[in-house]
Design brief:
This protein is α/β, with parallel strands linked by helices. It contains nine helices and 15 strands. Helix 5 packs across helix 6 and helix 7 runs parallel beside helix 9.
Length: 343
């Protein structure tokens, strides 16, 4: 009897140990899951995002690493044009692309209607360039071939076209749509994806967009270099642009922008990223506040020349707020841009 009681006691002790270890293991698994969720930069409901990496600021490896599996694609920004309207990819951008070819996200090359003049100054959003290269079918075909060849020869997964400044020039829009349709046809043949960037002032109702490309609406610069101080975006602004895009066929994405602007009382406006904004905040010992409507951070300071400034910018929480507006409407999100963020 004593031996039986002894064995029963040992059995109970061993069983208790296994139960304890099992609970501990489950607890560890749960903790790992919670930790992994907390490491997600943006709300998991947002899904994978696209982001731009600009050639003038490619110190983005830490941000790419932090985003991890949330980063679905990167657009390498930008290929522009020279004075003879030939396409140029900056050496540093191509070098960065080759260094990141093995990364596990889709890679797009972005073509922009910026023209680098002989004096090395840029004409941004150059409409004369667009009028020239879109003017007739022969020239359109040349640039379709040039653009697709660059993407194929360098190993990009897709092409992104960011031609801006067309505004209400419907005749030019018609030429541009003709060009996009041709480009999409050749992208399909070459197994390339195609994204088309649209500005908030695009006259959507007057344009016949073709099916096929992903159309990306820029949901930012509600306030900017030509306005009074304020937020780059807010939920109402974003929702209005989503409504505006309903006429556009196919897949649509919506882009939000990090950073912000520094307005001074003399009318000068300077673009700032989050890091720069927080450097100013620390330097001038200002008090920051968060706007409840937009989610943006803002503060004021007086510089060494006794000039008053007002700064508005987006941080991770701001971006998350804007992104959720988009994802809750059933769309994917793009982020302008990597570099200078503190997430």
């Amino acid at each position: 009897m004593k031996n039986k009681q002894k064995y029963m006691l040992m059995f109970s002790l061993i069983a208790s140990i296994f139960i304890f270890l099992g609970c501990t293991a489950n607890k560890d698994v749960n903790n790992e899951t919670i930790s992994e969720n907390r490491n997600s930069i943006f709300d998991e409901s947002i899904g994978k995002i696209s982001a731009w990496a600009a050639y003038w600021n490619l110190d983005v490896d830490e941000e790419v690493s932090t985003l991890g599996s949330q980063l679905g694609s990167v657009s390498y920004f930008e290929a522009y044009f020279d004075n003879k309207y030939e396409i140029i990819i900056p050496d540093e951008l191509l070098k960065y692309f080759n260094e990141t070819k093995s990364e596990n996200y889709e890679k797009y090359i972005t073509f922009v209607n910026d023209v680098k003049k002989d004096d090395n100054k840029f004409s941004l959003k150059d409409i004369n360039l667009l009028k020239e290269i879109l003017s007739d079918s022969e020239l359109q075909n040349k640039y379709v071939n040039d653009i697709t060849s660059i993407a194929i020869n360098n190993g990009f997964d897709g092409i992104e076209i960011d031609f801006e400044g067309i505004k209400n020039n419907i005749e030019l829009w018609d030429k541009y749509i003709e060009f996009i349709n041709k480009l999409y046809y050749y992208c399909e043949k070459s197994n390339l994806k195609l994204r088309i960037i649209l500005e908030p002032n695009t006259p959507i109702e007057d344009i016949n967009f073709g099916e096929g490309p992903v159309y990306v609406m820029m949901c930012y610069n509600l306030h900017g270099s030509s306005t009074k101080p304020g937020e780059k975006a807010n939920p109402e602004f974003i929702n209005n642009l989503i409504d505006k895009m309903e006429k556009v066929p196919g897949t649509k994405e919506f882009a939000v922008a990090s950073g912000g602007f520094d307005w001074d009382e003399n009318g000068k406006t300077t673009s700032v990223d989050e890091q720069k904004a927080e450097e100013l905040l620390e330097k001038y010992k200002s008090e920051k506040k968060r706007d409840s409507t937009s989610g943006c951070i803002y503060f004021k300071y007086i510089d060494e020349s006794n000039i008053k400034h007002e700064v508005w910018y987006a941080d991770k929480d701001t971006l998350n707020k804007w992104m959720k507006v988009i994802s809750e409407r059933g769309h994917k999100v793009s982020l302008w841009r990597l570099g200078g963020n503190k997430f």
